Amino acid sequence: MEPELPEPEPLTTLIESLRCLPGVGLRSARRMAYHLLQHDLRGAEQLSHALATAVAGLRHCSRCNGFSEDDICVTCANPKRDPTLLCVVETPADQNMIESSHGYRGLYYVLMGRLAPLEGVGPQALQFDRLLERAADGVVREVILATNFTAEGETTAHYLAELLRSRGLAVSRLARGVPAGSELEYVDAGTIAWALMERRGA
Amino acid sequence: MEPELPEPEPLTTLIESLRCLPGVGLRSARRMAYHLLQHDLRGAEQLSHALATAVAGLRHCSRCNGFSEDDICVTCANPKRDPTLLCVVETPADQNMIESSHGYRGLYYVLMGRLAPLEGVGPQALQFDRLLERAADGVVREVILATNFTAEGETTAHYLAELLRSRGLAVSRLARGVPAGSELEYVDAGTIAWALMERRGA
Ligand SMILES: [Zn+2]
Ligand SMILES: [Zn+2]
Where does the record locate the signal sequence feature (chains A, B) (predicted)? Predict the structure, then answer.
C-alpha cells in the first residue's frame, strides 16, 4: 500500500509554518490554518503580504534599536524631542505605552528583550554595548530605566544602572507605587509596601 | 504637534494582520510580530510564502469537501478505497486521526465544522445538502457519523442521522466506551455509564 497522506502538501506546510509563531503548537496551528482557509482567505492573503512587507521593509534603528523603515527612526529623527533624556524600554509596545502617557518628550532605547539567564538571554544577546555607546554620546544626561517591574525587568534595570553609572551617567527608574485610579483594597500588598517606603510629603 | 506614531507602518500592519488568526488578540499579535522580526525572519518569510501558496493552491474537494490541490482529492481518487462506506468528520484533523488508526478503508465527507446554533452555524452554513447529494450517489451503503463526542458534535450527529435515514441510507455512529489502554479509575463517570449501557457479550 502506497504511503498516503490525506492532507495536501500546501496545508501541511502552512500548519508547519504557523508553528514558528510563539505559543502556537500543532493543534493551534491546525485550527488557524483551517480557519483561514475555510473562513478568511482575504485575511490569509493580507497576513502573507504583511509578513513579506515587514521582513523586507523593517530594520533596527541605528540609534534606538527599535523597528524602523529607515536607518534612523521617526522618533530619533524628530528635532523636537529632548536629546538629553534617554528612556530604556524592553519592547516597542512599552515605548508605545510611554508615548501614550504624553508625559515624556525625550528619546528611547529599545532593548528588544530583558535579561533572562534561565533562557540564556544575557548582556551579550541584548547587545548592551550598543546601548552604552548610544548613552555615551555626550548629549544624553540622564538615562531613565523603564524596564518592566517584573523579576526579570528589575534584574535588567539593576544591571544596567550599575553599568551606566560606572560611565558617569545619571540613572533613574520609573517610580513604583499605587496605580492611578485604583482602590487600595484591590492593590497587591507588595505594591502597597513599595508605596509606603517611597511615600512623599503631601 | 504633529501626530507621531513611534511604530513604523509595516509593523502596525503586521500586528493588525496577525489578529485575523483565531484566538490572537492585540497583545499576542504584538508578541508574535516582535518575535518574528527579532528572532525568526526566516520563519516569517516561510509563513508568508506558505499562506500565499495555500490560498492559491487549495480548494475544496468536490466529493469529500476536504482541502485538496485538485478537483478530486487523493483519498477520493484512490480506487483501493471502499466507496460503499462514507465516514462523516468535522475537520481534516479528525480525518487524519481516523486514517492513523488504520481501521478504515472507506471514503470521507468533511463537514468543516459542526452545528453550533449559538454561533449561528446551522445546516445551511455547513451545506448539508452537499453531503446528502454525495451520500445519495447510489454507491454509498452506510454513512458512519464520526463527529466529536461533544455536545455540538452529538447534536450534529443526531441531526444528520435523521436526515440521512429519511433518504433510506444506513447510518452508524462510532462506538462510545472506555478508551483503549485506560485504567477505569481515571475514566470519567459519563464514559463508564455509556460503556455499561453499550456492554457486549465477552
Ligand atoms: Zn530610533
Ligand atoms: Zn475528497
Answer: none
Number of domains within chain B:
2
Q: Cβ contact (<8 Å) for B52 and A34?
A: no
CATH number for position A23: 1.10.8.420
Phi, psi for residue B121 in degrees, rounded to 5? -100, 105
- Which listed ligand is nearest to A92 at the C-alpha? 1
Whether residue A78 is found in the same domain as residue A131: yes
Per-residue model confidence as pLDDT tens digits over A112-126: 999 998 888 999 999
Hey, are the CB atoms on A92 and B7 less than 8 Å from each other?
yes
Q: Would the pTM count as exceeding 0.90? A: no
8 A C-beta contact, residue A111 and residue A156:
yes
pLDDT tens string B134-168: 999 999 999 999 999 889 999 999 999 999 999 99
Are the Cβ atoms of B11 and A36 closer than 8 angstroms? no
Same domain, A22 and A75: no
The verdict on residue B2 lying in a domain is: no
Distances (CA, A) of A74 to A79, A80, A172, B8: 10, 11, 25, 8
Residue among A8, A18, A31 whose CB faces B67 most closely:
A8
Phi, psi torsion values for B126, nearest 5 degrees? -90, 0
Smallest CA–CA separation between B18 and chain A, in Å?
6
**How would DSSP label each residue in A14-28?**
HHHHHTTSTT--HHH
Integer Cα distance of A187 and A176 in angstroms = 13
Are A43 and A124 part of one and the same domain? no
Task: Mark whether A172 and A196 lie in a shared domain.
Answer: yes
In whole angstroms, give the CA distance from residue B139 to residue B137: 5
